[in-house]
Known about the structure:
The complex is a heterodimer of chains A (263) and B (79).
Chain A: H1 5-10, H2 12-15, H3 21-30, E1 32-36, H4 42-52, E2 56-60, H5 85-96, E3 101-105, H6 114-118, E4 123-126, H7 131-144, E5 148-154, E6 157-163, H8 171-174, H9 187-190, H10 194-213, E7 222-227, E8 232-237
Parallel strand pairs in A: 1-2, 1-4, 2-3, 4-5
Antiparallel strand pairs in A: 5-6, 6-7, 7-8
Helix pairs in contact in A: 4-5, 4-10
Chain B: E1 8-11, H1 19-30, E2 36-42, H2 45-56, E3 60-67, E4 71-77
Parallel strand pairs in B: 1-2
Antiparallel strand pairs in B: 2-4, 3-4
Amino acid sequence: MPYSEDWIERYSRHIILSEVGGGGQQKIGNAKVLVLGAGGLGSPVALYLAAAGVGTLGIVDNDVVDLSNLQRQVLHATPDIGRSKVESAAEKLQAINPDLTIKPYKELVTSANIMDIFKDYDIVVDGTDNFPTRFLVNDACVMAGKPLVHGAILRFDGQAFTIIPYEGPCYRCIFREPPPPGAVPNCSQAGILGAVAGIIGTIQATEVLKLILGKGKLLTGRLLILDALDMSFRETRIRKDPNCPICGQNPTITELTDYEWVC
Amino acid sequence: MSKFKVDDSLDLRGVLCPINFVKTKLKLEEMEPGDHLEVLLDEGDPIANVPRSVKEEGHMILKVDREGEHAYRIIIKKS
């Protein structure tokens, strides 16, 4: 048998699943996933993907761990305060699964570096916390043809959907432009219940694994919306917009732009 | 002696649930449809669980024989 005893035992609960098996687990091991943000969403996404055995996991974040992060950013602990988030994340993820290649990127994604970072990955997960980056990430994924798993959270609310460029709607098909700076509050102003980040992040991680396995029905063309106060999910059908400025028939966006970054 | 041809075999006596099923499943994945896999399993949970899980995956159990006092020999046909 080509599998090691440790490998069989570690992934046994995956292998048992008829949708996974040994072949599916090998696909997971060969996958290269980039997680943008090592914060509220990036923490559960990266923790579950590392535990699942995603062979190459890139983590991008330019921040350092702050005391106010620890209420929801479960990758980091009190002794990590002041450390770079990607360094703290890499240490935890490597401890969960020493077989993986964890690649930390301590930088902001910009129009200048995003394509270079993306080129080594099959799937991108958006765990960023601001509109300028979300639009940049969407546009870069569409241009590079990379699947993107989107998630966003605020207060008790969250949303998630999966973008398969040109097959289904992209972020810009629904939200055409970033809102004007200051028009929408962010988590530091509006608050966020920490556990809500866990719900949306684990949905994103599940979508990534389904993408890798090629199993199940993805959140493409469906925006999943969570109201955690009511503890209800609702689904809105979303369509690919033929006039979308990035993935439509006559795209007007042909190069990446950095939107004004005001927080 | 089994009257069935056997293409491969696994001795999983002493291997606990669910690792015995996991190893059976991984071996079946390597085999061709229609191939026969012989597996030795302990009495108790292993013989109660592994054949059932194998059937749930769509394979056929062709034969179950006792093997000594505390084990069984099963023949699986890969679907």
